[in-house]
Amino acid sequence: MALLIIMEDCTDCVACIEPCPNDAITKNDGIYHIAPDKCTECVGHHDDPQCIEVCPSDCIIPDPDHEESDDELQEKYERLQTAAA
User: Fold this and answer.
1) Residues 6 or more apart in contact with residue 50 via CB below 8 angstroms
2) Which of 38, 45, 47, 74 has the fewest CB atoms within 10 Å of its CB?
């Protein structure tokens, strides 16, 4: 699996921000970004990435520059949970 990236055809609807359980999505200079160090593709929280589920313009796709296995995503989820506690 690859982590996720928001493409240029984003409509700026902000639908993806709230459902992200890791607060991985931010807006900088009018462009939305998904932080690879926070994105777990919702592993540990949901069966499917919630940002993709709610995106009305289908502009969130796998990022070929940030590929991680399910095990790596699970480890990141656990690390983020430990840091938040």
Assistant:
1) 16, 19, 20, 21, 42
2) 47
Q: Please tell me the number of Cα atoms within 13 Å of 69 on its side-chain side.
A: 3
Q: What is the pLDDT of residue 68?
A: 93
pTM for this structure?
0.88
Split at pLDDT 50, 70, 90, the class of 2 is low
Sequence-separated (6 or more) residues with CB below 8 Å from residue 42:
21, 48, 49, 50
The answer to whether 38 touches 80, Cβ cutoff 8 Å, is yes
The answer to whether 40 touches 22, Cβ cutoff 8 Å, is yes
Domain limits for position 47? 2-84
